[in-house]
Amino acid sequence: MSLTLPIYLDHNATTPCDPRVVEAMLPYFTQKFGNAASRNHRFGWEAEEAVEYAREQVATLIGCTSKEIVWTSGSTESNNLAIKGVADMYQRQGKHIITAIHEHKAVLDPVKRLQKQGFEVTWLEPNSDGIITAAAVEAALRPDTILVSIMWANNELGTINEVPEIGRMLQSKFDEKSKPIFHTDATQWVGKMPTDVERDGVDLLSCTAHKMYGPKGIGCLYVRRRRPRVRLTPIIDGGGHERGMRSGTLNVTGIIGMGKACEIAGQEMDSEQQRLLKLRTRLEEGITAKLPMAVINGHRTKRLPGTANISFPYVEGESMMMAIKEIAVSSGSACTSASLEPSYVLKALGLGDEIAHSSIRFGLGRFTTQEEIDYTIDKVVKNVQHLLDMSPLWEMVQEGIDLSKIQWGAH
Amino acid sequence: MAYSDKVVDHYENPRNVGTMDKSDPNVGTGVVGAPECGDVMRLQIKVNPQTGVIEDAKFKTFGCGSAIASSSLATEWLKGKTLHDANEIKNTDIVQELALPPVKIHCSVLAEDAIKHAIEDYLEKHGKTMESLHEHEHDHQDAKA
Question: Across the strands, what pairs with A310?
């Protein structure tokens, strides 16, 4: 098999649609194009039936009933609906929210907006492995806490927070009526790892299709209906679709794609996990064997199987990206034209600037081959070595100079 | 970001990467930038004390492709120049030669700074100041006249 360039290793950003997903969607663009809310004719009934079938497929994957799924445009909308919806609905019971500093912006920004409006927020910091523990959440609880929002797996590191432990801790500490609502942004988690919202005590869960080989522009929010029944103030009004929680004509083709994507993910999850873990281990070991200064960020094992975030100290991030331009990866640093700010997620781990500046996130996926991984190892090793040979910092470190003790000029 | 062909060429085939003995009296060393800013440049020159001509130049750079190219180009230009002429190299010359975009102009500024620091270091070792370069210039003009 020949290798095609560029190689796509950015599956945490998005995934290609699985051809089986596209095939399931196609008839609903042209023949079965009805509006799922049309009650008077066959076109509407067909669309509605397909939507309800997809709802079942999603519910099966995450362990809830289909009535608990609210379709949205994706995880950003789901996070907004969950966070703002709970804050508005429960504000008379309290104004305290617990979240973490290395959440995705789609959680950070809605919470910051609420903070401006008068809500009080505890921003938890992860430990140096990148993980938020149940103990950390428990210590932050207050009598007026109404919402805990902790992501399941981090998008940059792949690290897995103690979501089931947090869910169970909240259930054991509070009765149904006084329990803070527990929301998790499970965008990176669902479809890759076994999910059971019932067992794990999750009240609200955001996920999206395009991270699991479905189309972009469709996602959902799981909203618990029993013990407790979670109520949300909608963000989008008009028509009262989705039990009033999210109005707007349903994205029927997208929904069907998401349903199919969930079905495939469920069927192939076990074997895919094993396969990805093997490839990632090959990648990490291949790189660190030749480049001992490379640092793997985040917990060594409590990570999504396909994500590797590796820092290359003493080489600079942008030159690193330039060096491996045939490999589509994401730089841990936002080292673009204007801003030289290292990633806030890596900073949250307590990494020094010179390490956070040159980190690369490798996101492996369903169609990643061993050949592609071997090519990547070779390319990364050769180019980092090239950059190290040019790096005055690396030379100083090898001479035993402590870089932190040097007085650098101001620039 | 799209780099110019010249930047890519210097990045892939950097000229004069290396290290000189910084305690050698004929070597001048300039280190500029800081790791947290994402750029550290080290430029070294080896000067013939009799003629004041730069006989060799080396660099090492931690930085983006443009920073590497700016310092690599600087070493090419420095070789064979007198200290006086080396001191006249302007960052704008580097910008023009490498077709650097506005966001990368700081790389050329850094390279110019590194040249000046290396010259200053050499002169200090010989008990001279940057002003002495201009005195030399006057001598030169007088001689011509």
Answer: A296, A360
